[in-house]
Amino acid sequence: MSRFFNRIEKARELISFLKTDLLLIEDPINLYYLTGLSLSKGQLLISKNKTILIVDNRYFLNAKKNFPFDVRLSEEINFSQTILDTFKKTKTIGFEAPLTSYSHFLELKKAIKSMDKTLKPLPNVILENLRCLKEEEEIKKIKEASKLTDEGFDLAKALLKEGIKEHELVNELLTFWLSRGAEKAFNPIFAFGENSASPHHLSKDKRLKKGDLVLIDIGAKKDGYCSDMTRVLFFGEPKKKLISVYNSVLRAQEKGLSLARPKYPLRDLNQNVRDELEKDGYVKYFTHSLGHGVGLEIHECPSFSSKLALKEGMVLTIEPGVYIPGLGGVRIEDTVLVQKKGIQTLTKSSKELCIID
Predict the structure, then answer these.
(1) What CA–CA distance (Å, rounded) separates 67 from 62?
(2) Of 29, 182, 279, 357, which has the fewest Cβ atoms less than 10 A away?
């Protein structure tokens, strides 16, 4: 539990920085990060010298046993009154506006109406200030998930045969991961032929035929942590245009991987990869972000649209893609770890152009 104690202390250090007296955390993912407890519902209150976790009967005994701070049973207390009684000197109550329940916001607003207290809406401060930089134990788990992702890709590649359906590959992959004590980080994407032109295609009953491009976007989740990878294979001789697209996307991704290092602005990295695609005239077909952070959630901090620069300990994807309606799409994606002098690629599957006869 020491790492969760340390995380609570780091959250406590945010209080002065955020100019608030009390932090209210309700998001289940942030609660798990700070407590190590899987809670579908709960409230964590953190001040400069006190920490209280409020849970219901389903979680109370386990929380009392495993959480090294004050744990209270929600059925026996009044939520807002607990805040007012326990944190009497609190002037400002900071809450994660995108994640705090509206009912609790209204309850707090009503409770402090006649008191000298204010509510301060905050962004997802735990994600942006703590979860964005991974600890060694988190990196280890993401590496394990990435290894299972690579193994899942090998399985899917071996199963490719004429007539197999997209959703059949999904089922085989999920069964494999379950047998390894893992689960999906998101709904796997197997897109045959023209279906690959849709970046987030929903795998259905299309059958594989000769000449099809096969886009495989998959990610395993192990011990709560995610991974993400996309590869493209050609089932039979591909169209020359698709070979051109593939090589262009691969060069663009390699450009991004070579530039990624601490202090490199995310927006600049995004633009440089787009400039690489523009050389071949394909940038207009690149319709999504260059990537996203990966951790307890498949999409988390950092965002390529932010003003952030890369920092050591960030884990993110780099995934340029080109999607041409009526022809197909190519996306090449890896999960990477930012290190002192560059990045470590965590997903290892080959990106060499592969034609399956």
Answers:
(1) 8
(2) 357
